[in-house]
Amino acid sequence: MAGSPRVLPAVLGIPVVLWQAVFFAAPLIFLVVVTFWQVKSFRLEPAFVLDNWTRILFSTTFQRALVHTFTVAGTTTVLAVAIAFPAAYTIAFRLSTRARDLAVAFLVVPVFSSYMLRIYAWQIVLSPEGITNALLGSIGIGPLPLLGGAFSLQVGLLTLTLPIAVLTLVFAMAGIDRTLIEAAENLGCRRARVIAHVIIPSLRPAIALTATTSFLLAFGDYISPLFMTGSKPPTLSILIVDTVKSGSQWPRASVIGVSMLVMLALVLGLGQFLSRGRAARKEATR
Amino acid sequence: MNTSLATRLSRLAQYGFLGLLFGFIATPMLVIVVFSFDANRFPTIPWGGFSLEWHRAILDDAMIRDAFLNSVLVGLGTAMLSTLLGFAAAYIDFRYRFRLKLPFVLLVAVPPAVPATILGMAMLAFLSRIGLFGRLETVMACHVAIATSFAMAIIRLRLNDLSRDLEPAAWNLGASPAAALIHVVLPFCKPALVASFFLSAAVSFDEFLIAWFVGGVHETLPVRILNLLQGQVNPKINAIGTVVLVISVALVLIAQRFTGVRAGRRPKPEGE
Amino acid sequence: MKTPFIALDQLDKRYPDHHAVKSINLDIDAGEFIAIMGPSGCGKSTTLRLIAGLDEPTGGEIRIGGDSMRGVPAFQRNTPMVWQSLALFPFLTVAENVAFPLRMQKVGAAERRKRSLEWLDRLGLASMAERNIAQLSGGQRQRVAIARALVTEPSVLLLDEPLSALDAHLRVRMQTELSRLHRELGITFVYVTHAQSEAFALADRIVIMSEGHIQQVGRPQDVYRAPANAFVAEFMGMNNLVRGEVRSTRDGVLDIAGALGDFRVPSATPRPQGSKGDFVIAADRIALKPEADGEGLSGTVLGLEFVGSTQTVFVEIEGGAEFRVQKQQHEIEALNLVPGRKVKLSWNPEHAWLLPQAA
Prior knowledge:
heterotrimer; B: mainly alpha; MetI-like fold; 12 helices; globular; C: alpha+beta; Rossmann fold; CATH 2.40.50.100; 5-stranded antiparallel beta sheet; 21 strands
């Protein structure tokens, strides 16, 4: 570009790169390095040992937490997509433009606000002396053990994942070519078949994105496991915080963190693969 | 007639389902607000009558006041810096081509995707080694690293609408590239800058894990709440919660007003 | 010889994927109105951007007022441009748009305001000063763009297809306006367009470009009547190209034989027998007669097309070529020209233009 010295992009770019390097990239790289370090008398010392990795990866606590976290996040993913899809469908295809705007605005708010408080509110609602049991008690039922199990954990994680899952699908559905749907209906497709044969295939990437986002959020969440199940059984996030708190076991906590990141990367890769697989096949048949 | 009844029932089911979902999302927020005005010490029903006792109580709590002030400072700093860095990143992505562009964009975009537990721990481990642990500025710096991602996304979206000729036209009329950036690109992006300012503030105002890890003794409001939650039941929580909720929601709503992301409605071009 | 105001010297521009401008030379005099024409992708807009400094040449040099522009960034050239997209600043008012270049020159607010209002007044927009750009019509926006480009009183104005977004009526009015401004200001206008009518109506000289090369430079009527090569002849549209070979030369006239028959074409210089003898005959120089009459090329009317008060008759000649003939409406009616009708085409040999031999 003529007349533009190289100064401007440097002035703009260097602060951004430095900032993200110091406060994001370097900490993550350091996290990987620390997994090979040692703790001697509560002090972290540079070293190169594989001890932390073997101890963590072969410990039953870690393995149980890993299976538990995967099960929980997998369940949340399935529930989030199953619940978000019909809701998004109604918002995208059944509401007026104005109502759709309001629905979107309503869904954006919780994505950026007060997750922790909302989980605390669910505690009030679900606890043994809470609102739900008080209501049930007044008609002679209960008290039910709503808080502290898989049910309450999913309530918490869906509080986290549903708004963003619905939003992702609404935006994807708003982008679908309506003529495609009308054409299918003209050809005598019933609504259910239109959804199965027209809408779902063209939403494949968005569904994959929704699923991976939900998984990512649920997999790494700390608040719902802490407050909805009292950390029992622990998820990997709980395990990290506990490991840090108990005796400054930084290297071991880092091993858990790095393992989680590796697994998340694999899941994201799988999501990409699933959303692309179909498109690639379509290209091949053309 | 049968089909129309079936259609009507199906519509009813769809709207009913959507209503249930919205109820699920709204319930926790309503619960906090309603019970913050409850005279009872333990939030349950029946309601113990209207009271402003707990709201008054948080005003008298020095720790809460300090935490609130910390949150405001961190939020404002984050909002300003994220918007600035997000604008720079979005403009670079928009204007220049270079080999390391993908790593550059990822460096800015990825942070919110890393679970806060891991990121918080990593930040604490690294920043404490370079002597930055336990400072309010550090909390802000870490929040900026996350919020810049959102700021870049919002501003980049706006830059898509900037006509490719507008900047060259400014150069042609005697504006240096820096002057064109200040006098043409910046005013064009104004709505997005406002949106990203408020959204970054909301992100910071809502974040607790990283603030908890790197803040040390300097508690932000969400960290104070987290610490209160881990202690005994405390009726003040609902009152603080209401305040936090109102501020968060307001920040996000203001941000939304300026993004123009909603279907079919965009901010009008503004004359000064 | 006086030095040209703008000189393009072996100017060359290569992009990674194509060679847009190929070592062109062009001298533009001070105060001249020059139009650069050519089909899209011929390099005309690139040439303009190179003059403005919005692109950097990959070879050669541009001199403005005798000074080399090498390394001079766009914002220091004072070569304002009127853009096809207008490129008005949507967040500024009309007056603020016009004042923008003055603001960049650090002219004081009061002076800025005064001068921008003067220019708005000059272009008949005084009452629009406080409006937003979005509130203006297409023609009004066009005037704002012109006022904004002229407010610094530059010695050259660049225009990149400025009228292409306007409807036909407005286009003619803006042509008049541009012509008046050029006369009043006496500065150099470099005008890029693909519309022949605009170039002919406005320009002192026309530059025809194709595939990065300059094909011909000259006064409009010369380019029209005496095209330098087959490309220019065909680009000018209202010319018919006849290909042939020289048979003999005598007294400034060539006998030429081609697929369509034998022709006589005037030529100042003799040409050897057997050399190329392609010539053009302008569409408005051809006479049409009902078939029975006399000599000339036989053809069949294919169709007619209105161009203002005249009509273009498309005639298919026996032997395959297609000719265009331009006639007034009343002539068309007199001859009862309908598609399918047989006609004879003839012309005064004096009006045939022999294409120069390629150098």
